[in-house]
Amino acid sequence: MNRIEGNFLDKYKMISFIGAGKVGLALGLYFKQKGLKIGGYYSRTYKHAQAAANKTDTKAFASIKELIEHSTMVWITASDDALSLLANQIAQLEIPQQIEAFVHTSGVHSSKVLQPINDKGFRTYCAHPLMAFADAEKSVEQLDGAYFSIETPVEEQTESNYCLTRLFEKTGNNTLQIDSNKKELYHCAASVLSNYMVTLLNMAYEIFAETGMSKSEIKKATAPLLASTLNNISNNKNISDALTGAIKRGDASTVAKHIEALERYMPNKKAAYIELGRATMAMLQDYKLKDTLR
Predict the structure, then answer these.
(1) Could you give the 3-state DSSP secondary structure of residue 294?
(2) What is the pLDDT of residue 164?
(3) Per-residue pLDDT tens for 71-83?
(4) How many C-beta atoms lie closer than 10 Å to residue 281's C-beta?
(5) In what order do the strands lie in the sheet with 15-18?
(6) Distance between CA atoms of 219 and 18, rounded to whole angstroms?
(7) 4-35, pLDDT tens digit by residue?
(8) CA dist 132 → 50, 87, 234 (Å)
(9) 10 bridge partner residues
(10) How many CA atoms lie within 13 A of 238 on its CB side?
């Protein structure tokens, strides 16, 4: 029997984490809530490992070597920039045979970043939770409905992702298969959806504030509009069907007034408005307003 055959839940006695930040802590709490056993945490800053261990009632490890000696599955939840260095450090250790897999959670890196570990004969994976992490305890609630993106297995890896799919069967999470060669593009999409949505909201709030609205009330006052927009997106098969407003109606005079107002009061917002308008036309495949948005 090789490493990834047999009863997964019997074999994976201890899942431990290299990285004790928001992601590692939230996953530890979540996996423990789902009945998986958590070994503990390692962090370059020992007090961070202690804090995570205290919250999960597990162990703070003083070294990566100590962690892997007391684990059967290792999740690497460190920063993206640290992954390559950690992979090399781990590969230089005498990795015990009970280690079934190393998993990193980066959205931008494929499992190839852990190649030094793979070269030593150990399974390496990537499982990226498609959500934004804030407070760890709140993130545990959100993880219950989160999708995890894993890489499409190549033909020669017939057992690839087996341990991950079994783990997510236990937790009840859905998984998405993505092309490992397009991992950067996947992460770009997630960044546009998460980070740039915040930027877009900030742009709208600043424009509202320029009209005289109280900054303390803008977020609350616009919440129903935002909620109804997200609801329209959720309830329509085609995202373009969720669109309302002047560009969908082809109302050139209204769009022109928007641009004139921005030119007069907030010229630094004009270019972004026009580019968003052009992207909206492209989504609709309707270019009636191309002269207005030139």
Answers:
(1) coil
(2) 85
(3) 999 999 999 999 9
(4) 19
(5) 59-60, 38-42, 15-18, 73-76, 101-104, 123-129, 148-151, 175-178
(6) 38
(7) 444 444 444 799 999 999 999 999 999 999 99
(8) 24, 25, 19
(9) none
(10) 5
